[in-house]
Amino acid sequence: MVPAAIAGEERIAIVDGDADSVQIAAFERDRRELIRRGLAFGGAVVAASSIPLLLSVRNAFAAGEADKTILADAIRLERIAVLAYGKAINTGLLSAGVQRIAKLIADHERQHADALTSALTDLGLPGPAQPTVKDIDSVVMGIGDVKSQADILNLAIELETAAVAAYHDAQQKFYDAKLLQAGASIMASEGQHLVVLRQALDKPPVPNAFETGSK
Amino acid sequence: MEIDSFLRDPLSRRRFFAGSGVSIAGGSAMFLAACGDDGADTGRVVPTTPKEAEAADVEILNGALDLELMAVAAYKAGAAKLRGDVLQIGKLFIEQEQEHADALTSAIKDAGGTPNRAKSSYDFPELRSQRDALRFAVEVENTAVAAYIDALPKLTKTDLRGTASAIVTNEAEHLSVLLGALGLPPAPRAFVTGEAG
Please, which residues have CB within 8 angstroms of residue A19's CB and are 6 or more apart in sequence? Predict the structure, then answer.
């Protein structure tokens, strides 16, 4: 199924589906068209540009047939989130209050990564290689181009949305019961991050009754 | 019973939720009933025949439906004490809990089961103020999170696990908003398990 890119007034929604290069190329065409028509604005430019990559991450995350693969993908995603929040904090664009939020969320993401790494170690595998700041763009693009606190908050919402989507897919892939439960508790935490970030942007904090990361 | 006594007394809380058809983490007989002993022992999802799997899923889903119907009633009971923006939050959460109940009802029917109905009344603690209503809502949401996380590995169909995880994340989001409205940290823990505090 080709994911449909739907231009709303302020957001672009992705209909759930597997991503491949053809779909991403199709989305890229839609995105360029949106930008040409001036519908992408402010932080939304950053957000829109992230979506094809969000899809590819989501696909890679969901494609793992074994718990070990899913865990390794999840660890990478969490570590990239830690790096992204660290970079955002260092921009000097955040107010004291938003800095506190970013530090809290970064700490949560670090705890997620540590717990998942322990789980992977328990399965007899070493943790995956540490990502670098350059790897942030593989999840959300534009961290180097942010010009305001709103840009950063929008980027963070995209990042957390990608994480929710990844864990939602993982719920349908994990085999081990404890991993299913750990994944759900982390997914719920990412949902709480979304609430805090949306409130910081004066957006509705809980827009949907089902938080799947697909919007 | 006053909300303070209710929240202080684990036995009262357990009795209330059990009486509402809802079990809570650590004593989730309702959810465990749908899972074979093998599953409990190994911590793994146990394959069963399709018919057994559907029956197990229906039992779990009906437990979740009980919980959602109780949550709708709880928010409606508390709404009378809410004002302004907090009342709007309460109304939104009633709608979202009802959406969960509707989705669960459909899933139960799809699996060939009969959905449970809401109880005619619930013995809620006395809610005298907006703060009481918010604190009770936090308790209800924590119970929901714990119950869903407990139930997730016992669901045999992967799409149902996806739905349950989307609901539990939404309940966690409700918790975040409620905690914030109480002046408490909205994301107090890195792992949301439904534990109070």
Answer: A3, A52, A55, A56, A58, A59
Domains within chain A, CATH numbers bracketed: 5-200 (1.20.1260.10)
Cα B148 from Cα B61, distance rounded (Å):
10
Nearest-angstrom CA–CA distance, A76 and A62: 14
CA A44 to chain centre: 15
Nearest chain A CA: its distance from B1 CA (Å): 31
* 92-121 in chain A: CB under 8 A from chain B: 104-105, 107-109, 111-112, 115
pTM here?
0.80
pLDDT digits (tens, 9 = 90+) for A117-174: 998 888 888 889 999 998 898 888 888 889 999 999 999 999 999 999 999 999 988 8
0.90 surpassed by complex ipTM: no
* Residue type at position A207: P
Q: Which of residues 111-140 of B touch A (CB under 8 A)?
A: none
In this complex, is the C-beta atom of A172 within 8 Å of any C-beta atom belonging to chain B?
Answer: yes
Q: How far apart are CA A187 and CA A131, in angstroms?
A: 21
